[in-house]
């Protein structure tokens, strides 16, 4: 499994732990709602800006998004 897939699974795990739908998380992170599913599937190489927005929306540190 590559880093994009591991990152996507971590986003999905944290989203579900927070009881958020993909649409709600996308809104909180200010990204397009159609973009988030592709991140969760490991299909996107996201920018550091998107990583930061997702961390803020999930109320975690950026490093937490990369911990297994």
From TrEMBL:
Domain of life: Bacteria
Protein name as annotated: Transcriptional regulator
CDD domains in UniProt: HTH_XRE
Keywords: DNA-binding, Transcription, Transcription regulation
Domain HTH cro/C1-type residue range list: 11-65
Taxonomic path: Bacteria, Pseudomonadati, Bacteroidota, Flavobacteriia, Flavobacteriales
GO cellular component, one term: cytosol
Pfam families listed in its UniProt record: HTH_3
The UniProt record lists the keyword Transcription regulation: yes
PROSITE patterns (UniProt xref): HTH_CROC1 (PS50943)
UniProt feature coiled coil, ranges: none
GO molecular function: DNA binding; DNA-binding transcription factor activity
């Amino acid at each position: 499994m590559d880093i994009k897939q591991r990152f996507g699974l971590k986003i999905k795990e944290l989203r579900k732990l927070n009881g958020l739908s993909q649409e709600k998380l996308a809104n909180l992170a200010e990204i397009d709602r159609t973009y988030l599913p592709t991140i969760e599937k490991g299909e996107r190489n996201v920018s550091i800006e998107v990583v930061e927005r997702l961390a803020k929306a999930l109320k975690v540190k950026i490093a937490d998004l990369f911990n297994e």
